[in-house]
Recover the amino acids of this structure.
């Protein structure tokens, strides 16, 4: 499973990219608004693309098809790593189709059901982003939607990549792996929690204590 970082924070992106931990980035307008400040958000997208050797999702903010297509073209022109993110609305799916006809990669976002995911695939989506945590928030089982999309895409030989999104904790990431999501996008806090285990810490401490009894250096 590919791991994407769900942030626009360039220092977090550098940290994870330099450690070779991530395959790409997802952003959304809320994440951009947190960090873009007075600068041009397009400059931030370019900076992110130069740090990460992989897809970088950049979301449109127009809500009509023509506006989304125009913004999508401008975003795609910024850098070859850009994947244009469009919402799962009728206009968004029309924009997806139009952008895909121009060979622009598209991530269809704000997906909450398997039926929506099938329609996104029909519109040619490169990625579909089911929002697991937001479904959990309203009392549903978000991972169930990931499982259903996997089953339906496999059944019909659909190549759209499943990008599990709105991941809130390590258990979500684990379940996404086990269910066969192609990718999961993790907030930095979840990425670092994934590598932690108390037995790793106590095991390391014991090794170091035992080594000290030798009184030797390596
Ligand atoms: C995905 O592409 C979105 O940016 C993100 O995962 C949304 O997560 P949230 O529900 O925690 O805001």
């Amino acid at each position: 499973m590919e791991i994407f970082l769900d942030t626009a924070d360039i220092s977090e992106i550098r940290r994870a990219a330099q450690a070779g931990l991530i395959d790409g980035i997802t952003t959304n307008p809320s994440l951009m608004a947190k960090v873009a400040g007075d600068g041009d958000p397009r400059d931030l997208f370019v900076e992110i693309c130069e740090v990460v050797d992989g897809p970088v999702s950049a979301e449109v903010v127009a809500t009509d098809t023509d506006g989304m297509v125009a913004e999508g073209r401008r975003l795609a022109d910024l850098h070859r790593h850009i994947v244009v993110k469009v919402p799962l609305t009728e206009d968004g799916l029309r924009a997806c189709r139009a952008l895909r006809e121009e060979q622009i990669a598209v991530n269809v976002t704000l997906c909450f059901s398997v039926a929506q995911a099938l329609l996104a695939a029909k519109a040619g989506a490169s990625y579909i982003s089911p929002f697991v945590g937001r479904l959990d928030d309203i009392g549903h089982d978000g991972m169930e939607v990931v499982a259903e999309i996997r089953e339906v895409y496999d059944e019909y030989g659909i190549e759209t990549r499943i990008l599990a999104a709105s991941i809130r904790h390590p258990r979500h990431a684990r379940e996404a792996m086990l269910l066969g999501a192609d990718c999961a996008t993790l907030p930095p806090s979840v990425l670092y929690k994934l590598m932690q285990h108390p037995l790793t810490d106590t095991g390391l401490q014991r090794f170091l204590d035992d080594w000290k009894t030798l009184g030797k250096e390596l």
In short: The chain has a mean pLDDT of 97. Residues 6, 26, 28, 109, 129, 131, 133-134, 165-166, 185 surround erythose-4-phosphate (CB under 6 Å).
